[in-house]
Amino acid sequence: MSKPKVAFFDFTCCEGCQIEFTNYGDAAFLELLNHVDVVEFREAMSEKTTEPIDIAFVEGSFSREADRARLESIRERAAIVIAYGQCSASGGINALKNHQSDYKQFVYGADAEQPQLDSQKAQPISAAIKVDYSAYGCPVNKYEVLQIVAHLLHGKEPVIPNYPVCVECKRRETVCRYDEADHCLGMVARAGCAAPCPAYGVPCEACRGFVDHPNVPALEKVLVERAGFSQKRAADKALMFNANDLEALS
Amino acid sequence: MTASFIRSDDFAAFVTALIEAGPVYGPVAKRSRFAFERLETPEELRLDYDVTILPPKKLFFPPAQDLVTFDGAGFRAALEPTEKVLLGVHFYDVKAIDQTDLLFSERNYDINYMAHRETTTIVASNIQTVSKRAFFASVGADVEPQGHDAFLTAINGGYVLETRTERGEALLAFGAFQPATEAQIAEAAAVNVAALERCPEELEHGTEAIADKVRAAFQDEELWTTLAADCFSCGTCNTVCPTCYCFDVQDTWNVDQTSGQRTRFWDGCLTEDFAKCSLGEGACENFREERAARFRHRLMRKATYLNEKLGGPACVGCGRCSAGCTADIADPARVINQIMAS
Ligand code: SF4
Ligand code: SF4
Ligand code: SF4
Ligand code: SF4
Ligand code: SF4
After folding, report:
1. d(CA B220, CA B110)
2. Which of A109, A213, B180, B209 is deepest in the core (most CB within 10 A)?
3. Complex-level ipTM
4. Do A137 and A176 share a structural domain?
5. Which residues contact B25 (CB under 8 A, 6 or more apart)?
6. Do A42 and A112 sit in the same domain of this protein?
7. Predicted TM-score (pTM) of this structure
8. Does the beta-carbon distance from B232 to A219 stay under 8 Å?
9. In angstroms, what separates the C-alpha of B130 from chain A's closest C-alpha?
10. B112-146 residue pLDDT tens
């Protein structure tokens, strides 16, 4: 039996999630290559393909209308499309620019008028094509990605949590940030990362996006009442990775 | 069984001897809080702890427990229980262990819990510091803690160890114990009674009155919607609870497609997908879709549904959920008192 063909494609992003794929360490990575055939992967090889593929990992946000045709051609060729990383799954950190107008001058200065810098709102790729599964996180959790691949190869639905980071945080018995006069977004953030941030003593920033039904008004209330935030700061706190979702909820 | 006394000066040597004989778990400091961990030295043991983040249940029923591993050749049980001592369990957690002992052994004898439980010698200890949200004195007050092998109480100049079982009696060989005097036994009893009077919160009504009125409030949609308005469905009130026992089982395959493991994880009825069931052919149904319904379910479980089976409420008043809920809405004492006053 021929091995399933896997390919990586990138749009608006830092390609950090692709790099994460090369971080398994030699043994695990080579074991993975025994079971899949990577046919396109810009971060690690120069070959490209126009052949049908079994699993397409699509990294990055949909932020230019000009990218739609390329996304559609990937969708046509791929049996399974996985939004790979938070830029792709929710718009991620790129969506921070959605409510600003002067970012081009701010970032590129004198070069701001180059045509390739024109962009629209940063959106998840699901705004352009149908997505089958999402590998959340900024960057993705490489162990979760391995689980997703293993389950798909096995013909089984990948299990991706729809409970908050607090579940994993408490399972590992981390002292809550709120008990240490800090703040945290773990109550609305989608788990699956094993809650490393609070365990290292820093707040969860919800880099894997929200759970399906985040209680955003309650989050603002807790940030104001327990973490001493201003109302404005509380309302903006989750923007970093969730600007599109906050806009949709408001 | 017997009552013995050990001087404070000899206590560290006793704990050291236990540690040398096998694994010993006890409360240790974790940043600003406490957790049951395996002891390396007697100095780590903090019998003055108020409450641990997770209950001692985690030693018998780990948050993530591999049940079997499998490969092309077959299945293997992952269970490897070892003899151990669990030192410093407060009486409310002993009461909670009594509940999980029953729930994991009646009808289906859950070997993955019971094997760990049967290899554990439990030494309870008196409550030296009462946690900020505790109400253990007023909940199920007539239910006695059972499942411990010995009870340790700090008194002037040392500790009284009252043994309850042969296993507990065997501990005496590890330290410089002598028979306790009548006065020392009386002092230990007074210390334990005094702890009950220091709870910052209390239920204002008895178990049966609460059970009846909470159950009667089931249909009051406005009540539950209001109570759960700030709920994050984060399940912390389940995860930290010593009497919650729900779990989810997941199979994971390794990329080789032939090997993998079956693991069970703590689950919690407050999380959104807890009650999501398959209807077959890809369809599913969530029979507690609203957070108010989930919030109500936990309260019902803690205050009424299980009372008959357990001989008392499925809440032991540890206050972990009250303190752990970031929205501060989970406190059973406050919710129950509010319902009783309405
Ligand atoms: S630290 Fe954050 S993730 Fe952990 S329990 Fe507290 S709020 Fe939840
Ligand atoms: S704890 Fe929060 S910020 Fe950290 S990896 Fe998980 S989702 Fe991202
Ligand atoms: S009641 Fe509190 S701890 Fe429980 S799920 Fe809701 S927010 Fe989380
Ligand atoms: S419901 Fe809350 S107070 Fe009662 S036993 Fe569970 S965690 Fe403790
Ligand atoms: S309260 Fe909920 S999670 Fe806890 S044991 Fe009962 S049903 Fe299970």
Report:
1. 37
2. B180
3. 0.96
4. no
5. B36, B37, B38, B39, B56, B59, B84, B85, B86, B87
6. yes
7. 0.95
8. yes
9. 17
10. 999 999 999 999 999 999 999 999 999 998 899 99
